[in-house]
Amino acid sequence: MADKALIEKAKKIFENFLAKQGSRKTTERFSVIDELYSLPEDEHMDVEGLFLSMRNKGYTISRATIYNTLDLLVESGLAVKHQFKDKVALYEQALTYKHHDHHVCIQCRKIREFSDPKINQIKEAMGKEFQSSIKSHSLVLYGDCLIENCENKPTLH
C-alpha cells in the first residue's frame, strides 16, 4: 500500500521545484508521482510500464509526458534513473532511497537490490588511493539464473 504522506511530501517538493524552474504544474506530472511512489520501494519501472499501468488506471497521458516528467523527477531528486546493460532506463523513487547496488539475472532479467558494507570500505580505500572525494558509485553484477523452474525465465517454444 502506498504511503500517502510520502506521496504528498514528494508532490510538495516537486511543486517547489517546478515553481523555481518556472515550469507548469500539470495534473499529468503529479499523476506520474502518484504512480511511481505507489510502487514497492525496491521496484524499478520503465516508461512503457508506467505508461501501460497509468493507461489501465484511466489516466490520459502520453509517453512523452512521462519521459519529460521522469527527467524532471530525477533532476529534482525525487527519482533515480538506472541503465542496466541492454535494458531501457529504469526508474525508482528516491525519497526512501538508501544507496544500494544491483544484481541482474541475464536469463530471467530479475533485478535484485543488495547492500554490503565492504563495498563502502573499497570506495573509501579507492578515494584515498586516488586522492579523491568519491561522492557516489554504481555497481551492477550480472549473472545466470540458477533457480530451478524460475518463474521469470522466458519459456522456449
How many β strands by DSSP?
Answer: 5
Distance between the termini: 37 Å
Structural class of the secondary structure composition? alpha+beta
CATH superfamily of the largest domain: Winged helix-like DNA-binding domain superfamily/Winged helix DNA-binding domain
Radius of gyration: 18 Å
Q: Any overview of this molecule?
A:
- The chain is of the alpha+beta class and 157 residues long.
- The chain folds into two domains: 4-93, Winged helix-like DNA-binding domain superfamily/Winged helix DNA-binding domain (Arc Repressor Mutant, subunit A, Orthogonal Bundle), CATH 1.10.10.10; 101-143, 2-Layer Sandwich (Dna Ligase, domain 1), CATH 3.30.1490.190.
- Helices cover 41% and strands 13% of the residues.
- The protein is built from five helices and five strands.
- The chain has helices at 4-21, 27-37, 47-56, 63-75, 117-129, and strands at 79-82, 90-93, 101-105, 111-114, 140-143.
- A three-stranded mixed beta sheet has the order 4-3-5, with no helix packed on it.
- The N and C termini lie far apart (37 Å).
Topology:
Layout: H1 4-21, H2 27-37, H3 47-56, H4 63-75, E1 79-82, E2 90-93, E3 101-105, E4 111-114, H5 117-129, E5 140-143
Helix pairs in contact: 1-2, 2-4, 3-4
Offer a concise description of the structure:
This protein has 157 residues and is α+β, with helices and mostly antiparallel strands. The protein has helices spanning 4-21, 27-37, 47-56, 63-75, 117-129; strands at residues 79-82, 90-93, 101-105, 111-114, 140-143.
